[in-house]
Amino acid sequence: MAETRAGQDGEPDRRRERRAVSMRGYLVRAGGITHDIELTDLNYGGCGITTQIELECGEAVKVSVLGRGSIDAEVRWYKDGKAGILFEPVTEETRQKIERKAARVAVPGDITLRAVGRSSYRVRVLDLSTDGCKVELVERPSVGDRMLVKFDGIEVLDADVAWVEGYAAGLKFANKIHPAVLDLLLKRLGAE
After folding, report:
1. Whole-angstrom Cα distance, residue 23 to residue 65?
2. Which 3 state secondary structure label does DSSP give 32?
3. Which residue in 124, 135, 168, 179 has the fewest CB atoms around it within 10 Å?
4. pLDDT means per 10 residues in the chain (192 residues)?
């Protein structure tokens, strides 16, 4: 079968870098019909899958992975048992402005993040303070979820999800980072 791809209008392909995965899941089509799939790559905007069913470009589906929830999505392309899936944008909730207790510093770098009872993964940390940090999401947590944060070179920190907005979240550390440790982390992460 020929490949179908939405929006082939001469625009350059702007797919974001995806992380290779091997996760078993389900695809739910219109009418609640469920099919086995395997996720082969993933980023916060979509995923690649293998499937034994033929899919239609533009088809609305729901992707579900055991223990990780489900998300509304759209089939972007399909060819020979493989498909590209685009996750539906998450509706932005207006969050209440929180008075910052400590100044945040923008940082480039990655940390290891893990929800309690789940596998860990690397994410980009966007800013950091003694009280918490802002991270880019791979999996969308809920406000109040407990997360385990691991910066290279220091012990694991417990944190609670303070807010979630789009594909970013604010994490509040259970115990503040000492200012001297924060300075060390900022240097390791390359903050200016």
Report:
1. 7
2. helix
3. 179
4. 41 58 90 90 88 93 80 92 84 53 76 85 89 86 90 88 88 89 81 61
